[in-house]
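Translate sequence into structure tokens.
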Amino acid sequence: MREKRKKHQRSSSKNRGVDQAYDEETPFNPYLKAAILEVVENQVRHNDPPETRQALERLLGKGYSRKQAIEMIGSAVVEEIWAVMHDHKPFDRARFAAFLEQLG
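Result follows.
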């Protein structure tokens, strides 16, 4: 028989890497946000796809802070994930690049 996990057992926010505790009143899931932002940082770090770094540089050039730009790019990542998961479409680099181009 499997043991039930305690619903309210949480690690500290310091260990999770997020600065906000998650509860049902929060309009977003900080764990998911942190994961999406990590995807963006990895794309920028590895220049893969290069369109992500280009979007970051373009947004910074328009006066957005790095944090704002990374979060904006994260929204494009979410759009692409939605197309893949919800619409059952394969990853499409051109579609993702178009999402990035629409930012800012």
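Note: The chain has one domain: 28-101.
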